[in-house]
Amino acid sequence: MKSMIISISIIAIGLLAVSSFFIAVNESEYVVVTQFGNPVNTIDQAGLHRKLPWQTVNRFDRRVQLYESPMIEYLTGDKKNVVLQSFVCWRIEDPLEFFRAVRTFESATQKLDDLVCASIGAKLGDYKMANLISVNPGEVLIPEMESVIADEVNKKTADGYGISVMRVGISRLALPEDNAQSVYKRMEAERSAIASEYRALGEEEAERVRAQADREKSDIIADAYRQAQMIRGEGDAQAAKIYADAYSKAPDFFRLVRSLEAYKKMLNKQSVVVMSADSDLLKYLNGACLAEHEGNSAGAK
Q1: Alpha-carbon distance 129 to 108, whole Å?
Q2: Do residues 34 and 52 make contact, with C-beta atoms less than 8 angstroms apart?
Q3: What digits encode the pLDDT tens for the residues 177-224?
Q4: Is the pTM of the predicted complex or chain greater than 0.90?
Q5: Where is the Band domain (predicted)?
Q6: Which CATH class is domain 65-175?
Q7: What is the dihedral of CA 15, 21, 26, 30, to 10 degrees?
């Protein structure tokens, strides 16, 4: 029993001794091997690698890291206070340089925070408040500012810290209370100006539509009047032709009908008409009265 325990112990010690000569490296990390505090080897390939037992293994995540700064107050180019929270996307580009310059992720994020905050403070002096907050999208220049800051910070970290800065951005923007009201009033004025412009354009379009409608209305009325006059002229011509035909076929009957029409228009219960007894207009009435008188005389006889 004791010999079995001794054998197992020897095997375990042997395996432990053998394992101290190898390093298992995965794809998501860099390894810097140091000996008595000094780097002697850098491993950036996944797999099993050799080392000496007294050497130390320092592992660093090679994936993209995200750091967010606290809310910090800055001053814009037009002397307005603004509170910003920024973020940095970064990763280790040179593990050996990173180990020599910062060694830990905590130290790296602190240096990044200092560099980014200093760069934001300097660059904000080139921009006005309207370039950060505006109702007009064309005035907002935050993406441009983010790109400039990222390039500037990356130049410093790539050479000095072995860090590649992929992006710097503004994740949150706020206003101090004393500046908020002035910004809100400015935005309200900008909105009012835009609304007035739209109203003016709407009125102009409405006037154009009304003028067009009036022109079309006048054209339609003129065309209708022209057609009505043509129809009336054709009707008058046909009526004149009918009258002429009727007169040529039965002139006495035609004169009688026309006289009766004249009587109808001229006479009513209140009409008083004074005419000569031999008037052509009254000859039919005179003839009727004479016939009635002769009839009455014959009856009396």
Answers
A1: 31
A2: no
A3: 766 666 666 667 777 777 888 888 888 888 888 888 888 888 899 888
A4: no
A5: 19-187
A6: alpha beta
A7: 150
